[in-house]
Write a structure and sequence with these properties.
It holds the Pfam family DUF951. It is built from 1 helix and 5 strands, in the order ββββαβ. By secondary structure, it is mostly beta strands. β2 (about 25-30) and β3 (about 35-40) form a beta hairpin. It is globular, with a radius of gyration of 11 Å. It binds zinc ion (ZN).
Length: about 70
């Protein structure tokens, strides 16, 4: 299985959409925990990296390299 690629500022799709109906999340913090922000309602959540990797479906938009 291909390992998931993601970096800060990427927009990703999760396996479950947010209750607001949007399924696009921006990665706004990277670390042992990852903070993602819903592109629909701007709600943000902090999740452990392991859990994030499990719940992330795919990358929608790749951030420009810094
Ligand atoms: Zn939302």
């Amino acid at each position: 299985m291909e390992s998931k690629q993601f970096q800060l500022n990427d927009i990703v799709e999760m396996k479950k959409q947010h209750p607001c109906g949007t399924n696009a999340w921006k990665i706004i913090r990277m670390g042992a925990d990852i903070r993602i922000k819903c592109e629909g309602c701007q709600h943000s959540v902090l999740i452990p990296r392991k859990e994030f990797e499990k719940k992330m479906k795919r990358r929608l938009v790749e951030a420009d390299p810094q």
